[in-house]
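Subject: for your reference before the review

Hello V.,

The reviewers asked for a structural picture of the protein, and I figured it would be easier to keep everything in one thread rather than splitting it across files. Below is the amino acid sequence we used in the manuscript, unchanged from the supplementary table.
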Amino acid sequence: MRLIKILQVYLTVFYGQLLSIGLFENLLTGIPELVENSQSYFNIARACLGVLILIQSILSIIVIWSKKFNIVFITGILLTVIFVAYMIVNTIHLTQIFDQLKAIEKYKLIIEVLTKSFILLLGLIVTFFYSSRGSYELVQTEHV
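And here is what came back from the structure prediction:
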């Protein structure tokens, strides 16, 4: 039961951080850029990704604390879709702007994308672990 609480706190912090990334980086900066240049697929994808992250984060936090482990699995699948979309959008964007950047900016941008990808992947792993382990922990505590 203690493991479940630790995972709940970790996932709440993770999805809170994901929510702030979705709001700030994708929506608050993406929408003005979309208004400026509505023909850019990157800006459209970024705004859509922000909305998807916003919905998924709020849903995940509610589901994690209500201990609906089957639905947590579904939010893990949605997080997988977000992770793949994030990687595709950022890869396309990096290839478009890579030649225009200075060497130090290239490394900073690559490290930033890799760090965010690693954190998303870690959250993905913990979400699936929580969805599979959670119901097992509850069954174990009921028998004891």
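For the response letter, the relevant points are probably these. The chain has a mean pLDDT of 81. The CA atoms of residues 38 and 59 lie 29 Å apart.

Happy to draft the paragraph if you're swamped.

O.
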